Amino acid sequence: MWIDVFNGDADGICALLQLRLEQPRDSHRVTGVKRDIALLERVNVSSGDHVTVLDISLAKNHSALQRLLAQGASIEYFDHHDPGEIPDHPALTATISEAPEVCTALLVNGHLRGARVEWAIVGAFGDNLDEPAQRLATKVGVPESDIAFLRHLGHCINYNGYGAELADLHFHPDALYAELYQAETPAVFRGSRSYSILSDGYAADLAASAALQPVEEGAGYALYSLPNAAWARRVSGVFSNDLVRAHPDRAHAVLTEQGDGAFLVSVRAPFAHRYGASKICTQFETGGGREAAAGINRLPSEHVEKLIAALAAEYGSQSWL
Prior knowledge:
12 helices, inorganic pyrophosphatase (n-terminal core), Diaminopimelate Epimerase, Chain A, domain 1, 2 domains, 6-stranded mixed beta sheet, alpha/beta
């Protein structure tokens, strides 16, 4: 049996699209909302099964990965987050890079030698890697008008992955993947009703966030708060990415209220210094991510001051300027 395990954001979806359009498999798929990364815990295998893992932290899935290897599965792993200790096992093939301008879709693009490069570009734009995506698109001769569409599509697919639970999303990530796979190319998907739903929802939620102002500011950082509402949970990642581009010398933390009084947190390092986000978030029990962008799945309200102190310690000096 073939099993595909992938993050429900643009990077995970576009990485799998490239692989399966080039290497079709009748596979069982496992995914969830963007923050649902302990996905290997849901996977059960038999000896001889093949598992492909895309865009979820190996460090957060280490025990489950070892279990699957012990059960006789062969595993191919593509990711760009901190992997922790990578198991030394003959059945594991790991393609992992933590470089700030690399995402999983770009790693798969290299693996496939550019066979489905448009989806790699979409995935990179969706992961807020506009510059690498633009360079790749220019290199392969994508017209500027089409690049603008690929950027927007990446942002829309990524936007769809955010939410505390699947009910917050416009589409289940697996259903969206299946429709994109059926379309085969970004151009064909552009004419679909699903694309219109995503694009319209993205625009409406961004408009709702436009008037937000920081609730806390320091020399090199700002903190924003979003309400406990589905639109806010959906837009939190896109809003965070837009803040970084609007204020490239400043780090940002976006806190989205949850029903129990705690917060879902997105942290973005300054665009001019894309380091430190994971260092901040891993100080908290449910935190993780990568150098440029990280998050905390549940931050109790009494720990907000600790988060502010961590932001000030990491970015307050603005020593990179």
